[in-house]
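Translate sequence into structure tokens.
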Amino acid sequence: MIYQMHVRSGNVGACVFETRQVRVLGMRLAHDEAGSGPALVLIHAGVADRTMWREHLKPFAAAGYRVVAVDLPGFGEAPPPEQESAPWNDVLETMDALGIDEAVLVGNSFGGAVALRVAVVAPERVSALVLISAPPHDLTPSPELVQIWEAEEAAIGRGDLEAAVTVVVEAWTQPDAPAELKRRVGDMQRRAYVVQAEADATAEAPDPVEEDPARLAELDVSALVAAGEKDLVDFREGAQRLAHTLPHARHETLLAAGHLAPMETPEAFRELLLGFLAG
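Result follows.
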């Protein structure tokens, strides 16, 4: 398991972009796209879907990038996998379908774990990595993280999905987060529960990082590894460990941000990302 984010669309505003769905090997993958230039693929958190990136599409396109925000299988408008679950392969297949040979991969949380595995299995397809609050491969969950997971599981187990959504929103947003941000996270998580509840159980593909963790130290890819200063200790310390493991990594802390920095501090996140790419 690459990250224990449990069973787990909307209006994207005035930004001019295309929404597409691609049928690849039986998997229907939805994405939003804007701009032209070097490819920038955005991969959402496990409590979100591609709409978490909606305010970033236009600025990244204006900065000269072809930006693509994807729904991972089982989230947003992408149905769960029909066979084994290997989201890193789904990202690569979507890149193939869009004619993207190489891209900067940007992942938040679970999306960061997926991006890292894309780089491990196909390093020639990744020009750079940006990992925000990505779980380390050797994650040993803290008591606080275990408590969050158990509370969510308990709510799902008794069939109270609204209580599960409440657990997720309270756990992964800050207490003083704007009501609109909390609503967006709740809507995305609620949609994921519905999509995943309709699916048959699928096996998980072998994790390429768990199979050979030494491959991380061999990645010849520039990486920005960051976490919010208010995130759980699992991800703050995990970002530091991951930055020390990857041979070409830079570590940063996003001030005033928690686990979902691209949504919580969007301008600071964009400034950090674009500065890293320019450098």
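Note: The chain is about 40% helix and 20% strand.
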